[in-house]
Amino acid sequence: MSFQYIPLPGDQEGSIRLVHLLPKNEHPKSCEGPGSSGALASPPARVHCTLSVAKLEEPPPYAALSYTWGTSDRKSTIMVNGMPFLATENLESALYHLTPQGQPLVLWVDAICIDQNSEGERPQQLRKMRQIYSRATSVTAWLGPPRDNSDIALGWIQYYGSLADSLGIGTKPDLMLPSLLQSLRVSPGKLPENSRLKTFLKEISNEVALDSGQAESIRVSLAKLFDRPYWNRVWAVQEMAHAKSVRFACGDKSVSVDALHHALRLMRNLRQFQKLRQGCYVQQATVKSIGFPTNTRNATSLLKVQRATEPLPLIYLLRTFRFFKASDPRDRLLALLGFASDADILGLSSDFRDKSYEELYCDVIVGLITNGFFDVLSLCDPDIRIPGYPSWTPDFTRLRARVPLQQRVLDRNSSPVKTSLRPTFSASGKRKLGSKSCPPPRSSGSHLVLHAKLIDVVDHMGTQWKAGHSRRWLEELRQFSFPDGANSLEPLPRACLQAVLHTAVADQEGWRAAIKPRLSDSMVAKVQEALERSKLSEDTASLTLFGVDDYMDQLQDIAKHRCPFRTSTGRIGIGPHQMKPGDRIYVLEGAPVPYAMREGTDRKLRLLGEVYLHGIMDGEALDNVKTLDKIKLY
Predict the structure, then answer these.
(1) Whether residue 300 sits in one domain with residue 199
(2) What is the pTM of this model?
(3) pLDDT by residue (tens digit) across 554-613?
(4) 244 and 339: one domain?
(5) Is 5 inside any structural domain?
(6) Can you tell me the distance from the alpha carbon of 5 to that of 118, in angstroms, rounded to the nearest whole number?
(7) Full residue range of the structural domain in which residue 379 is found
């Protein structure tokens, strides 16, 4: 006989179940598996627990479990109230490793505390996720069972992350890790007089040594740890956002959220230092790579939410967690809407569970665009579009790799928390959306009514960027800069070369703390000098030897899935690789960047994506334009 739920009290809106995980010394001495007999007996259950009912308003102290369910076709038996209960293998492993030695551990675990077969109970309990996680004394994030030297990875994170925190690494200009490591190599006498700091730097510098087998083993174990499914789980975002405190557990080892935060910063800085030391661009880390892992983006994003003091705007959440996954495609947005600070303002506070995921996506995009968040269109891609749905509605169930031209950054000093776009572009000039002269877009069924200006038409397209083709990328932009009929072998005028260098990286440099600036004149001069000295060699990674590694990093980041192009008026730009001659470049009223659109055989305009078009990114194209046209975007 298997476990049977007793319904929650009539006021189940205010009631929850809690799991009491029994210590090992309270397990039955002998417990055969269900239906076992004689030689065919199943192994005894490793997990024993009981269930109780509590009032959510005044619950006893409990911890909440954050984990991935794992595949539903692979189950293990646990004992609940003395009866067998089928749990996923990952959950059984989590509960086994969390089993205490002394007093019972009180937990909230969704798969056990909610009757998953009750159509009435399940949605009611899920609506209380915010309260459940915020009222828990702590949250345990279960990464999975121990494997691939995960103990080594967690030990490294806890030790070096905690040490970096206590030493204040990265908190002051003189404590920036890359400069400290550089001083250790070339001028150790300039290091601060701090023996703990010097010991830390000597130890951590060994982790960068390319000939160290032990360091390579650590980097491999870290890369595999951050490849685990937990880091892609969208519901973990909401659970982290509401948690008072978090520990990340893997097997019998765990690390604090602060240690993980500082360890992630260390890995980012060690990647940068290692790249500078090698004098070349470090490619995406794999288990065979010598570099520190680069697959830490999702973990970093999770910790940003966990450490935030207030709820965050939906546009920031959507863009930050666009690579996270959910089994139900609606959850890609519902998990974020549940704690977005501006869901009500955007008109998105209703219960969307009766809608299809396609309808939900449309409603969310309309709410954002009509409130001026045009950058959600940067998530659209013609190759991953919901069939039969508008071109301005991205399909969040499929991953999109093209990096948006601008990034959303948090202003943590504002209340409520606000965001801004970096670097700053203003293709539509000083027009402020919502003013009398700049009405907001309107949605009408399958199309958006927008105020816009046709700026230019694509005339020539270059080659889609591929890894190692930076030379071709720069050369095609150079050729596009010559007037028709000019000999492309002639030296390019200095101003034209500067336009090429600005366009190649969408006129932006790498991050400077929380700032992502436009491309500076000093960097342009350095790149020009490097190009002259290197003669634009076939492998432009060698340019990093001339001190322009930041520029080359930015180029390789922004160029992916894009092509260079020239317009009919001779402007140069970069845009989605799906573009072709005849496509139109529009500036939308209130939008910071231009957009490429295509008119189909049905005479309808459809979105291709955002573009960088040199010479119009600061409102120049609309300076003397008093009225804009109405367009319909399908």
Answers:
(1) yes
(2) 0.86
(3) 998 899 999 999 999 999 999 999 999 999 999 999 999 999 999 999 999 999 999 999
(4) no
(5) no
(6) 10
(7) 311-424
